[in-house]
Amino acid sequence: MTGLAKHTHWSKWKCPSNIALVKYWGKRDFQKPMNPSLSFVLQNAFTETSVELHKEGDQKVEFYFEGEISAFGSRIEKYLDHISTKFPWVNRYNFRIHSHNSFPHSAGIASSASSFGALALCLTELDFALLGKEPDTHEFWQKASELARIGSGSACRSVYSGFSIWGNTQLFESSSDDHAIALTEGVHRVFYGLRDAILMVDSGTKEVSSSVGHKLMDEHFYQRSRIAQAHENINELYLALLTGDPEKFVAVVENEALSLHAMMMTSNPSFLLLKPNSLELINRIRRFREKTQIPVCFTIDAGPNIHLLYFQENEMDVKAFIERELLAFCENGKWIDDQIGRGPERLIN
Ligand code: DP6
Questions:
Q1: pTM surpassing 0.85?
Q2: Domains, the chain, ranges and CATH?
């Protein structure tokens, strides 16, 4: 980040979405995770948000999404109200916010992660500018992550580049339920060439909102086992990342994706979000891996779309496989070509 904003009442950031490899599923208290999660940020799926503070009129929040006034403004108003206990200056201003996504709403990419990530970065920059504090410090990024978490849990993992971990884990003393930490050191170089082909099975609206979804874990029969499993999987995955072990990576990532769906299928009420084409894609990805010995795997969020993960060195073979065998099972042949990203960026106009 380069210096302070010239105008202390305006800030603009670009923030990526992220995809979890160990899934956050279930909350405790207010926006705290039931278990630790680990994700990486994407490069091409991002939100750009600008925040302008002013004192005109009496409307607290004017929120424009893709240039049009949007109903999401009321969620932001609640959010601002919530954080005003920590940032009293929030009460002194009205907010004009413009937001734009690089990906279509129906793309099946979690937009709350990049939206709240970008908004939190703007608010943190404004806070630091108003208080005359030096930005681009450890405290800055931690604060941005914490603010993002209050808006949407997974958003706290979007403010760093590469991989990050959210939630207390024995792996790092600095890990926290309040904010994510970046995995900056030791990750094997093979994982910096990670790619994500998002295979669109169904772009319809989500059958289960994330707040309803997380609540399903409150009384879940498998709650304790799920928490223990997430801790074990995060340990194993971290080891795979350090040692550059694609086999272990594949095993943990698929286990996590299917465990998330197993939790949904066995909750009360129960949700079956995978579609016949999701299953077809899963089977084909596994068959391709067995036949070619190329390390590919899938991960899935709370919906039917399949994220096919692979490594840069196999790009040609995997893209040919997607074209030849997978596109027939995607809605209108639609897929999104993405990869591990460099993290957020401060914008100057
Ligand atoms: C399945 O972060 O969308 O994508 O905190 O209620 O906004 P809220 O939930 P959200 O949940 C994401 C759940 C997930 C797994 C993950 O990203 O870790």
A1: yes
A2: 10-186 (3.30.230.10), 189-339 (3.30.70.890)
Distance CA 22, CA 266 (A): 19
Instruction: Give bridge partners of residue 52 from the DSSP assignment.
Output: 10, 96
DSSP string covering 126-180: HHHHHTT--SSSHHHHHHHHHHHHHH-GGGGGSSSSSEEEES-BTTBTT--SSSE
Instruction: Please state the φ and ψ torsions of residue 17, each to the nearest 5 degrees.
Output: -85, 170
Token pair for 251: 């095993």
Tokens of 144: 């941005």
- Model pLDDT for residues 261-282, shown as the tens digit of each residue: 999 999 999 999 999 999 999 9
> What's the pLDDT tens digit per position in 70-109?
988 999 999 999 999 989 999 999 999 999 999 877 666 7
In DSSP terms, 38 is beta-bridged to 22, 165
DSSP 3-state of 280: helix
Interval between CA 261 and ligand 1 midpoint (Å): 13
17, 19, 24, 211: which to mutate for ligand 1, most atoms within 8 A of CB? Answer: 24
Q: DSSP 3-state assignment of 36?
A: coil
